[in-house]
Amino acid sequence: MKVLRVHLMSIFVLMVGTCVAAPVLAAEPVPITAASAFDAFATQTDPQTGYQKSVALIDVRSRAEYFWVGTATQVDDIVLKDGSSITPDLGKVILDHEGKFLTYTLNGRDKRVQVKKVDSLVHSAIARSIPFKLWNEETAKLEANPDFATDVANLVQEGIEVVVLYCRSGGRSTDCTYQFDTDAFFAVYEIDDPAGNRGFGGFEGNSYKNIYNGYRGFPGRQTSVQTVPSVSWTDSGLPMKTSINPLQ
Length: 248
Hints:
Helices cover 20% and strands 27% of the residues. The protein is an alpha/beta fold. The protein has a domain of 161 residues: 3-Layer(aba) Sandwich (Oxidized Rhodanese, domain 1). The strands form four sheets. It has a five-stranded parallel β-sheet. Strands 3, 4, 8 and 14 form a four-stranded antiparallel β-sheet that branches. Strands 5-6-7 form a three-stranded antiparallel β-sheet, with no helix packed on it.
């Protein structure tokens, strides 16, 4: 009888342990600024270690946001009104000084040009569109993309080692990592506040409840007066363009 009780107790402990065991969840992405994300992609290096890695910039917003709101680009050429053009280092151009200047580097030297002297910019999209959620026209709601995990997994097959995710402000880019195996990559990052304040990054940043120059991000928007300044792509003045086909 005593042996039987021991056996029953062992089975009970095993069953309880099985029931309460916590599920293994993917690690949350490491938050980095939009500027760091651009540099990581442009130089193909891990933003924290500095190792040479194959880096992909992933836009997890809906395809409608990618097309209508705009997406991350690099600038291949700055075309001036006098007919000349400038090819900036790494395609990095920042709209700065309250929108009056474009700043860039040329042959390693810091340069700037007045916006009024610029005729146009030649853009190339650098972010892949892999929507975490898709816009449903009938329900007017965002719904889960059934192909999301598979599409991210395919990046590994292409040799991608580091992914940098971004959404509108930093919510979806965190949530989506629970849908795929983050251990398949060398590292997974997202554009958001490196101090750990969620929702101040992404493509547009935080609206700050529309208080003092709030709303969504735009180049030169003054967020430094806020408790947590925005580190978003557009607030950083990095190149972006609308009307780019997310399926290409």
